[in-house]
Design goal:
alpha/beta, Rossmann fold, Ribosomal Protein L25, Chain P, 3 domains, seven-stranded mixed sheet
Length: 559
């Protein structure tokens, strides 16, 4: 079922739609589309467009198509198509039977091109790519007309037919629109509509050796599908006059309207598909689904939820001008969503052994612990407790400061949902490192405070050593160290060397032994974690989704 981005959002795009509805444009229809190119996996920036297009369709009881704009066979693949379909559906949206491909229209697009030739609005140009670039002019100088611009309609039709038949080499000819080489908008200076490209297409194979340019195919695909509002990002603003020119020349009625909005720019992140491909192909990350990647599939593997992503897209809204959104807002939305639904469990990442000297040897208790403090419907679980435990290494200090409320000489601390324990002694290794603590417990404190009324301020988590499950824990952090790596040409120089820390000696409570990939938990006091795809029976692997609070902004701000 299609999920609206927001019950009643408003922005300049919806204002345009409202005005059009009042004027009964498009017979009161609203039809949008999400049109990714299948040359990579979609990312959080695409998710914004997905939410916007499907959200508008839902709000106005319209339709939203999913269309793969596959006009450039180089780099396109069915792998990318399948990933896009899977990711859009995971985000919570449904296009019904309206899945389309630009390649569905190749024959119709060719016929449109022939019609432009017949009406004198297109010609076959034999300039090389370099010659065409030189003749295009600059922002201050007009371009020069091609010497082939005045070929006859018959000659153009003959050459274009032979281009399709594969008679010419790549780059020998192009089909160009005949517009205005003196236009102040360089895009309108006789742009290329078709080029020869001997690359097999992932859907049409070797059927075609000429392919339409994106600008030509996109607007006509919109028209063929009855799209009313072609919503795209600001980098296409200069291309809008070409969009309108092609539509006006070839479409008689119900012409789609292009509207641009600001693309998503996210701090500490790159969203250029070219740069994401570079990260993958040069093995700076472990694939498109690496949890450090801003791809939807990477965020899903990390443990982000579709609800959190939709809430984030609603929160940032739709703007006319580009700006940089702080990634901490996305993390906040993830944290808020997981806080409501994630089961609370205990896991020790940096274990320190604790022996409770006065606890009976061989004895095991089971405490019934609620899975969520505010949601009793999530049930409870049995957590074992025994004489030997593991706690976090930083929950003990040999010489603690006054405001340290955890374990140390002369100090007591409460074990979460269990007893109060008191430090007695320690054991160190030859290097002087503390490797084992000996403590005593107060058996009267399992269900309440000490009987003598003394106050115990600190509460720490723990796991029973004899029942603990060895877990691998992957601590993911931001992939880049600077706020705007996308603005840097040498962006790879700013990769964060600490973006992944793998802990192989974590200990999780017994209930997590047979957890399944995709399950999400709050590790008490540590953050939110998700079971990774690499998990095998009895050997869980956890990805840190997000910390309990945003510490990065404070740390980065202090630099």
């Amino acid at each position: 079922m299609t999920q609206p981005v927001n019950p009643s959002p408003t922005d300049f795009i919806r204002d345009i739609i409202d005005e059009g509805l009042r004027e009964n444009k498009h017979e009161g229809r609203v039809a949008t589309r999400f049109p990714p190119e299948p040359n990579g996996y979609i990312h959080i920036g695409h998710a914004k467009s997905v939410c916007l297009n499907f959200g508008i369709a839902a709000q106005y009881q319209g339709t939203c198509n999913l269309r793969l704009d596959d006009t450039d066979p180089l780099g396109e693949s069915m792998e990318y198509v399948q990933s896009i379909i899977r990711d859009v559906r995971w985000l919570g949206f449904d296009w019904g039977d309206r899945l389309f491909y630009a390649s569905d229209y190749f024959e119709k697009l060719y016929a449109f091109a022939v019609e432009l030739i017949k009406t004198g609005n297109a010609y076959v140009c034999s300039l090389s790519a370099d010659e065409m670039r030189e003749s295009r002019g600059t922002f201050t100088e007009a371009g020069k007309e091609s010497p082939y611009r005045d070929r006859s309609v018959q000659e153009n039709l003959d050459l274009f037919t032979r281009m399709r038949q594969g008679e010419f080499a790549d780059g020998a000819h192009t089909l160009r629109a005949k517009i205005d080489m003196a236009s102040p908008n360089i895009v309108m200076r006789d742009p290329v509509l078709y080029r020869i490209k001997r690359e097999p297409h992932y859907r049409t194979g070797d059927q075609w050796v000429i392919y339409p340019m994106y600008d030509f195919a996109h607007c006509l695909s919109d028209a063929l599908e009855g799209i009313t509002h072609s919503i795209c990002t600001l980098e296409f603003e200069n291309n809008r006059p070409l969009y309108d020119w092609i539509v006006e020349k070839l479409v008689e009625k119900n012409r789609p309207r292009q509207i641009e909005f600001a693309r998503l720019n996210l701090s500490y992140t790159v969203l250029s598909k070219r740069r994401l491909i570079e990260l993958v192909k040069k093995n700076y990350v472990q694939g498109w689904d690496d949890p450090r990647m801003p791809t939807v599939t990477g965020m899903r593997r990390r443990g982000y939820t579709p609800e959190a992503i939709r809430n984030f897209c609603a929160e940032i809204g739709v703007a006319k001008n580009d700006n940089l959104i702080d990634v901490s807002l996305l993390e906040h939305c993830v944290r808020e969503d997981l806080n409501e639904k994630a089961t609370r469990v205990m896991c020790v990442l940096h274990p320190l052994k604790v022996v409770i000297d006065n606890y009976p040897e061989g004895r095991t208790e089971h405490f019934e612990i609620q899975n969520h403090p505010q949601r009793p419907e999530l049930g409870s679980r049995q957590v074992p407790f025994s004489r030997v435990l593991y706690i976090e290494r930083d929950d003990f200090m040999e010489d603690p400061p006054k405001k340290y409320h955890r374990l140390g000489p002369g100090r007591e601390v409460r074990l979460r949902n269990a007893y109060v324990i008191k430090y007695e002694s320690m054991i160190k290794n030859e290097a002087g490192e503390v490797v084992e603590l000996h403590c005593t417990y107060d058996p009267t404190t399992q269900n309440g405070p000490p009987a003598d009324g003394r106050k115990v301020q600190g509460v720490i988590h723990w796991v029973s050593a004899q029942d603990a499950v060895t877990a691998e824990v992957r601590l993911y952090d931001r992939l880049f160290t600077i706020q705007d790596p996308g603005g840097e040409e040498e962006f790879l120089q700013h990769l964060n060397p600490g973006s992944l820390e793998i802990l192989s000696t974590g200990y999780a409570e017994a209930s997590l032994k047979d957890t399944v990939p995709g399950s999400q938990y709050q590790f008490e006091r540590l953050g939110y974690f998700c079971v990774d795809l690499d998990t095998q029976p009895g050997k869980p692997v956890f990805n840190r989704v997000v910390a309990l609070r945003d510490s990065w902004a404070r740390i980065a701000g202090g630099k």
